[in-house]
């Protein structure tokens, strides 16, 4: 029976020595690549959960399009959902580095599972950065104390990466509350969310730029007029719950505005600085699983009288996996660390997300190649990994969008030197 470690995580959090509480930068002068003892214990607890709970069940979740609610409840009980929630609201109060490390490890098991987790973090991010104390106390405390998840409602049927094109509209009623109408598409956690962060246009004047015309709201999951469609059966990551959401005259209390009226675009975009390093971490975890499975198979499979691990072509593919995994890990840790230093990390998070997404896809492709015909068969794990990998180049901003962001920053730096 899997031993619950939440008391262990809580004990680690409360009783660590001063040395164990120090950040890497504080322990030594200059760069330090060591994890703290606490981070190692978090990571090891997550790997235990992966090996004993996720990997044995992930194939069934995928094949039957199952959202594994009971396993998310167990993850919540173990403390994995409350790591980033401040202590005053019932969480462990850790930073983005810790959140990313946990998500990388859990993604070794199933990235459909961790999609639910990082989307929950994405929904919490606007509250972290822009929410009123009342909203934080209400929704962060709820998320820490109850086994629930939240959703981030921005994407619409005809917008995708074009967030400025959002059509969902909210207007004030006579009491100053808001009435919401519109539709969202491809919303992860859509059918299981306890509450939603929703971006809507609140100024009907189309001459007003999106940066001043939108507002972010917290919408309760049981609101009258809120409905959702069927659970989508996607190419990969089927353990996540993805649905279309409809809002028909949904009433939102005026106190549920996040970041002030007209500031929603900035609030929504700022949340990606928090989520993209975590997405990169999840992609890195998938790539790690590809390498682990490939190495094991290469030592077992024989051809031409010897293990295929002896063939240079196979060794080169494994080497390429290792190089890309280590680089992706460094990239997401840098992006997460910059965020934890309260510095704008858009440049770093876009680099991490773009690189790790491509690395996951290349590692998955090479894993299938190493497995050969078996890799093309659903009885072996790498077929699922290849399907799961593709979405990393699409959601949370496509790989092309990330390169636009990085390119603009490079040009900005170049202009500053002229």
Blueprint (SSEs and pairs):
Layout: H1 6-15, H2 18-21, H3 24-27, H4 37-64, H5 69-77, H6 96-107, H7 111-130, H8 133-145, E1 150-153, E2 169-172, E3 178-188, E4 195-201, H9 210-213, E5 214-220, E6 226-228, E7 242-252, E8 257-258, H10 264-300, E9 302-303, E10 306-307, H11 312-340, H12 346-371, H13 381-389, H14 399-416
Parallel strand pairs: 1-4
Antiparallel strand pairs: 2-3, 3-7, 4-5, 5-8, 6-7, 9-10
Helix pairs in contact: 4-6, 6-10, 6-11, 7-10, 10-11, 10-12, 10-13, 11-12, 12-13, 12-14
List keywords for this structure.
Butyryl-CoA Dehydrogenase, subunit A, domain 2; 10 strands; globular; Butyryl-CoA Dehydrogenase, subunit A, domain 3; 418 residues; 14 helices; alpha+beta; Butyryl-Coa Dehydrogenase, subunit A, domain 1
Short structural summary:
The protein is α+β, with helices and mostly antiparallel strands.
Explain what you see.
The protein has 418 residues and is an alpha+beta fold. The chain has three domains: 6-149, Acyl-CoA dehydrogenase/oxidase, N-terminal domain (Butyryl-Coa Dehydrogenase, subunit A, domain 1, Orthogonal Bundle), CATH 1.10.540; 151-265, Butyryl-CoA Dehydrogenase, subunit A, domain 2; 272-416, Butyryl-CoA Dehydrogenase, subunit A, domain 3 (Up-down Bundle). 53% of the residues lie in helices and 13% in strands. The protein has 14 helices and ten strands. It has helices at residues 6-15, 18-21, 24-27, 37-64, 69-77, 96-107, 111-130, 133-145, 210-213, 264-300, 312-340, 346-371, 381-389, 399-416; strands spanning 150-153, 169-172, 178-188, 195-201, 214-220, 226-228, 242-252, 257-258, 302-303, 306-307. A four-stranded mixed beta sheet has the order 1-4-5-8. Strands 2-3-7-6 form a four-stranded antiparallel beta sheet, covered by helices on one side. A hairpin with a 2-residue loop joins strand 9 and strand 10. The radius of gyration is 22 Å and the shape is globular. The model is unreliable at 1-8 and 10-26 (pLDDT under 50).
């Amino acid at each position: 029976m899997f031993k619950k470690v939440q008391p262990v995580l809580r004990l680690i959090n409360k009783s660590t020595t001063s040395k164990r509480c120090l950040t890497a930068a504080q322990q030594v002068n200059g760069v330090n690549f060591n994890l703290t003892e606490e981070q190692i214990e978090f990571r090891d607890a997550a790997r235990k959960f992966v090996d004993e709970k996720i990997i044995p069940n992930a194939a069934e979740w995928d094949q039957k399009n199952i959202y594994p609610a009971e396993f998310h409840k167990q993850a919540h009980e173990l403390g994995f959902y409350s790591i980033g929630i401040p202590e005053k609201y019932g969480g462990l109060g850790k930073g983005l580095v810790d959140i990313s490390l946990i998500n990388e490890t859990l993604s070794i098991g199933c990235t459909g599972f961790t999609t639910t987790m990082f989307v929950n973090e994405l929904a919490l991010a606007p509250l972290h950065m822009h929410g009123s104390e009342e909203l934080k106390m209400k929704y962060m405390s709820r998320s820490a104390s109850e086994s629930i998840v939240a959703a981030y409602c921005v994407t619409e049927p005809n917008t995708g990466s074009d967030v400025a094109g959002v059509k969902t509209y909210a207007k004030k009623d006579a009491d100053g509350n808001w009435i919401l109408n519109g539709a969202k598409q491809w919303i992860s956690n859509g059918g299981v969310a306890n509450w939603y962060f929703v971006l809507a246009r609140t100024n009907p004047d189309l001459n007003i730029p999106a940066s001043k015309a939108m507002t972010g709201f917290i919408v309760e999951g049981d609101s009258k007029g809120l409905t959702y469609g069927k659970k989508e059966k996607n190419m990969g990551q089927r353990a996540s719950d993805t649905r279309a959401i409809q809002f028909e005259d949904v009433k939102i209390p005026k106190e549920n505005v996040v970041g002030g009226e007209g500031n929603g675009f900035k609030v929504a975009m700022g949340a990606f600085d928090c989520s993209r390093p975590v997405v990169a971490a999840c992609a890195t975890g998938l790539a790690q699983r590809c390498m682990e499975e490939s190495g094991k198979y290469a030592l077992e499979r024989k051809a031409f009288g010897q293990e295929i691990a002896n063939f240079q072509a196979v060794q080169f593919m494994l080497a390429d996996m290792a190089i890309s995994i280590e680089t992706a890990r460094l990239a997401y840790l840098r992006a997460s660390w910059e965020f934890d230093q309260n510095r704008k990390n858009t440049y770093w998070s876009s680099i991490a997300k773009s690189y790790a997404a491509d690395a996951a896809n290349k590692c998955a492709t090479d894993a299938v190649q190493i497995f050969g015909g078996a890799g093309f068969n659903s009885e072996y794990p790498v077929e699922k990994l290849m399907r799961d990998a593709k979405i990393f180049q699409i959601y949370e901003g496509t790989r092309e969008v990330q390169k636009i962001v990085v390119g603009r920053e490079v040009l900005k730096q170049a202009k500053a030197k002229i």
